[in-house]
Amino acid sequence: MPHDHLAIAQRFSAEAAGWPVAPRFDPVERWYHRLTLTDDYEVWLLTWLPGQSTEIHDHGGSAGAFHLHSGTLVEDTVSVSGGTARVVSRELGEGAGRRFGSHHIHRIENRSARPAVSVHVYGPALTRMTKYRLRPSGLEVLTVELAGAQW
Hints:
Layout: H1 5-14, E1 31-37, E2 42-48, E3 56-57, E4 63-70, E5 73-81, E6 84-92, E7 97-100, E8 106-109, E9 116-123, E10 128-135, E11 138-146
Antiparallel strand pairs: 1-2, 2-9, 3-10, 4-7, 4-9, 5-6, 5-8, 10-11
């Protein structure tokens, strides 16, 4: 039976007092720390200062979810149909979360004036992530990063 990744993220967020590390904020780049790794999934804690974001990326075939522990983030979901890229934005505030499938491509950004903290779950654990550039003709692969080598 598959795990409910959003429920796992919500549970970890609710148990913040038990996190092995306190969230840290790095003015240069997003800060992240893996909270746990099981045979079926992994859980990550991420922090976001205003203006910090990811590149457009996928999760290398892993499904997952993320939950906003505090603050607000904007997710830009990217889909390509007939060679044309479509971007749909949604703002998620404290307490909100979102599940995604194994072929999900997105970018997350803190467009607010306040720091944000989020909990992310991936199942199975991430082995690679592909980063993309949005072009008029669709998505262009920039890099493929491997777990243990680039993060």
